[in-house]
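User: Can you help me understand a structure? I only have the sequence.
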Amino acid sequence: MKSTLTVPRRTLLLAVLAAACAVPIGAAAADLPSGPLRIVVPFAPGGGVDTAARLIARQLRANTGLVVIVENRTGGQGTVGGRAVQTATADGSTLLFSASTHVLTRHVLASPPYDPVQDFAPVARVAEVPLLMVIAPQLPQRSIREVMDAIRQQPDKWTAAIPALGSPSHIATLMLAQQGGLNLTTVAYRGTAPALTDVAGGHTQILIDSIIALLPMAREGKVRPIVTTSARRSAIAPDVPTAAETGFPKLVQSTWYGVWAPKALPEARAVALNRAFNAAVADLSRAGALAPLGIEPVSETIDQFRRFIEADVTRSAELLRAAGFKPE
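Assistant: Let's start by predicting it. Here is the structure, written out as tokens:
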């Protein structure tokens, strides 16, 4: 490859989230920052990460009484915002709210300004969002097997759009090529919007990206949905099968959102923030604010988040290496 719920399940999840967050707010308040909480989003306003950050920030305000400010600091493939948090005072008052792309910075940039794992303190993983595979609407294929067969027969006629290097879209596309034994050319874009526009116009044939970003155009018939790469069907696209149920059980990849602080954050402050974010997510889920957006809640301890990052980076870095990807 070239580098270029059911009700019972949902009820159980909410119960688990509530149990994980069942800490009296007064018990944790003493360990939370006393002043304003600044949440830095390293992407432009209006995107999936920004939307999730603002929802959670609003709930944090309601739960804690803190002033919570969301600040967009774009540029450098997320590193401008990341650097602003890395160099901030490590008192928990400045946090990074980013997507899974953050942890792969060292593997996709030739000269990254920091190590995304070693130079930050993980606080909480708060959500997952399924990915959706779409193709140009002019194409006749209707299933993932038909798409794979067409790529094998005419690889020169198929290119896959990559909205951002090291993104879940990039990793999922590498997984698709690897598991299908495909010689699939990829084309890097500056974001989802131009990539999606080119797929809709037939200039690029395939795109895998956040279901939040792709589903509106799929519903309008401007691109054709093929599968999701989630473990189960998305509640906002129940008619779209998963790759797993169509014969590719290892093609499972989602984007996820997390919160980080400067490296030297005191442990007590980290634990208090972890509980506060988990509680906010649980409250939003109970209120039904996340499901319509395709956002699936996550509740983890800091240690669980740390282990998740390690496994995710290991798997993604191996896929990049196997594809011959070189940091740029």
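Now, to help you interpret it: The radius of gyration is 20 Å. The beta strands are 37-41, 68-72, 94-99, 120-135, 159-162, 185-188, 206-210, 224-228, 254-262, 296-297. Let me know which part you'd like to focus on.
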